[in-house]
Amino acid sequence: MADSRAIGIFDSGLGGLTVAKQIMSLCPDESIVYFGDTGRVPYGTKGVDTIRKYAAEDIRFLLGKDVKMIVAACGTVSAVAADAGKDLSVPFIEVISHSVKDAAAATVNGKIGVLATPATVKSHAHKNLIEKLMPKAQVFETAAPLLVSLAEEGLYGKKNEIARLTVEHYLNGMKNMGIDTLILGCTHFPVFRELISDYLPGVTLIDMGLSAAKYVKETLEKTGSRNTGEAHAHYFYVSDKPVTFEKTVKIFLGENAEDLKTDLVDVEKI
Q1: CA 69/CA 89 separation, integer angstroms
Q2: What is the rounded average pLDDT of the residues 224-232?
Q3: 146-171 mean pLDDT
Q4: Which one, out of 59, 160, 241, 262, has a CA that is 20 to 30 A from the CA of 128?
Q5: CB atoms within 10 A of CB 240
Q6: In what order do the strands lie in the sheet containing 204-207?
Q7: Is the pTM of the predicted complex or chain greater than 0.70?
Q8: Where are the domains of the chain?
Q9: Which residues participate in catalysis according to the annotation?
């Protein structure tokens, strides 16, 4: 049975727009309701209890918009608070397990890197899942908290010396380990793809957003909940509108911010 309701997506900030972009590309007839908790970004440096609290509030907000599915477009939430979506009335999709499957399929030498936030690395969520699929795999994890802030500020391009030095700083250890596959374990990180590829030539990069988007499409088809109508719209909500909002949205989504319907949300009233 067709379902014209929107897909709900949330993230600690605007990085989850990389996931939204992939879903919009693979499922062009679907509507999107996106909530970016820009007033409390980043989640990855906060304690587990705080992350769980924020995730529950984000989910509650999206359910209030009558969405048919919720995607946690946040590696940190997916790592330490995915159980927040276990008893929902709609499907809940995290971004880690699907990227792990893609990484396991891509690696040749069994050496897989994970670049993520401190909270995600501390949880070993990727590592544990990889080792279940590939017991002989070698997994190298690195926390890269500064990359989230750089991405949110729009400091990411190949010509940006700060971004380049930061990427090299975090990936130096992995470069020496001989990985052939790297999971971009935070949805902010795809904007650094060119810099990462330059520093790790020949390494396959796994975009969690693309992995999750493929599963979203599969779930819609399996449950018969695709939107078969012609009309669709996208709505974007943030808990704070940063000074760099328009520039950052274009970086992550590839569209001009002025073309988006964006409203502010008071998280204290969710």
Answers
A1: 9
A2: 82
A3: 93
A4: 59
A5: 15
A6: 138-143, 111-116, 181-184, 204-207
A7: yes
A8: 7-94+210-269, 96-208
A9: 74, 186
